[in-house]
Amino acid sequence: MNFELEEISLQEAVEFVVDNRGKSAPTVEKGIKLIATSCISNTNLYPSYEQVRFVSLETYENWFRSHPQTGDIILTNKGSQNGAICLVPDPVDFCIAQDMVALRANQKKIDPLYLFAALRSNLVQSRIKNLNVDAVIPHFKKTDFDKLLIPLPTRCIQEKIGEFYYNTCLKIELNRRMNETLEEMARAIFKDWFIDFGPTRAKQAGRAPYLPEPLWSLFPEAIDDETGLPIGWREGTIGECFNLTMGQSPPGSTYNDTGEGLPFFQGRTDFGFRFPENRKYCSAPTRIAEPDDTLISVRAPVGDINMAWERCCIGRGVSALRHKSYSRSFTYYSAWAIQEELHNYEHTGTVFGAINRNQFMALPTIEPNNESFITLFDNYVASMDDLIKENVNESRTLAETRDRLLPKLMSGEIRVKEAEKMVEEAL
C-alpha cells in the first residue's frame, strides 16, 4: 500500500561534505590515485579506475581539505556526469578530484545505504537535473543541497530498502569482477600463444608440454631466426586477415529512444564492459555490425574495444572487425593486442584523434600458418567468454529489475520481501 512520505533535504541528510577546491590538484606519474568524474557512474557500485591520474603523498596530505571515508557517497556535481552516484569502498585507495563531493550521511536522520539508493532513484535524479544552474555545463551547486528533497520512509523501511538495493548492486559488482578475471585469463592465453609464442619457445627449449597433446603438436617446433616468429607464421596486416567495416552515421532524423530499428552506437561512450549499452536506436541503419563482431572506437578516443551483443548499427565513431575465418574470440583479443597502436592515433588530427580505414587496414597482426589455430583458440576460451556473457546478461536483468522496483519500494507500493521474490523470478 502507498503511504505519505516525509521528505528531508540533502543538506539535513549529511553531516559532512568532502569538498575539495574547484581546481586541479598537482599530479605525478605514479602515486595515489586521483579519480575524476569519468570514474563515477550510476551503473557501478564503486568508482572505476579508468583514465586515473596520480598525486604524491605530500599533495595527498597537504593539498586536499579532506578525504572520503569508507561508506561515504560520491556525488558528481558538474559536467556531463552530473548526478552520478557511487559508494566509497573499503579500503579507500584514492582521493577525489574537482567537480565531485563525498557525502557522509547523518546516521541519526537517515540510513546511509538508503540515502545511496534514494540518490540514484529516478525521482531524485530528475530533481538534481532540475537544480542545474547551467544548461551548457550542468552544475548542481553545494549551496542548493537544501533544495534537493529526498523521500524519507520510516527508519525500518529505509534500512530494508538500503540493504536490498546494496545487495543487488553487490551481486552486479561481483559479476563485473569475475568477468574481469575471466578476461584476464583469456588475454593471458592469447598472449602466450600469439604474442610470446610460449608453446613454440617451450618446444625449442625442450621443456615439457603444458597444453593437451593434439593442440601442442600443432605449434611449430622452433622460432625462425630471421622473422622472430614461429616457423611458418608471418606478420600480416589487418586488411589481409580481417574484414573491417567502418561506421557511417545515418541521418539524425532516424535516431530514436523508443527501440525502433537496430541499436545504434556512435563511439566509446556507448561501451560498457565487453558489450555496449543500448541507449539509441536507428530506424534506417547504413553500416551494420553482426553479433560477436568486435567493435572498436575510431574517433576520440581511438582504440576502445567492445563486442556486438546483437545486430546493430554503427556510426562514424565505431568500426566492426571480424577475422576472415569468422572467429569470435580470436578477433576480440587480436584487437586488444593492437590497442597500443590504435591509441597512437589518439593525438592525430587538428581537432581530435581519429584513424581512417587505410591506416587501420595497414596495422600489423600475426597470422598463424594454420587457420585451425584460430578455431582452436576460440574453442579453448569459449567457456570463459560464454560465462562473461552470461554474467553480463544476469547483471543487466538485475539492474533493470532493481531500478524498476526502487520507486515502488520508496513509495510503499511493494515490500522488500516482494521485491526480493521478483528479483529471484527474473533471473
In short:
The chain has 427 residues and is α+β, with helices and mostly antiparallel strands.
What does this structure look like?
The two termini are 26 Å apart. The protein is an alpha+beta fold. It contains 13 helices and 20 strands. Helix content is 36%, strand content 19%. It has helices spanning 10-13, 57-62, 112-120, 122-130, 155-194, 198-204, 213-216, 238-241, 329-337, 339-343, 357-361, 372-411, 416-426, and strands at 6-9, 14-18, 32-35, 53-55, 73-76, 85-87, 94-96, 100-105, 149-152, 234-237, 242-246, 255-256, 262-265, 280-282, 288-289, 294-298, 302-307, 312-314, 318-323, 364-367. Strands 12-14-13-18-15 form a five-stranded mixed sheet, with no helix packed on it. It has a four-stranded antiparallel sheet with strand order 2-8-5-6. The protein has a four-stranded antiparallel sheet with strand order 11-19-16-17. The radius of gyration is 25 Å and the shape is elongated. Strand 16 (294-298) and strand 17 (302-307) form a beta hairpin. The model has no long low-confidence stretch (mean pLDDT 91). It has two domains: 6-152, Adenine-n6-DNA-methyltransferase TaqI, Chain A, domain 2; 179-378, Alpha-Beta Complex (Adenine-n6-DNA-methyltransferase TaqI, Chain A, domain 2).
Q: How large is the count of helical segments? A: 13
Q: Provide the residue-averaged pLDDT.
A: 91
- What fraction of the residues are assigned to beta strands by DSSP? 15-25%
CATH class of the largest domain: Alpha Beta
Major sheet: arrangement of strands: 12-14-13-18-15
Low-confidence blocks of residues: none
Q: Tell me how many strands there are.
A: 20
CATH topology of the largest domain: Adenine-n6-DNA-methyltransferase TaqI, Chain A, domain 2
What value does the Rg take, in angstroms?
A: 25 Å
- The CATH superfamily of the largest domain is DNA methylase specificity domains
Q: What is the CATH architecture descriptor of the largest domain?
A: Alpha-Beta Complex
Q: How would you describe the shape?
A: elongated
- The number of distinct structural domains comes to 2
Give the end-to-end Cα distance, rounded to a whole number of Å: 26 Å
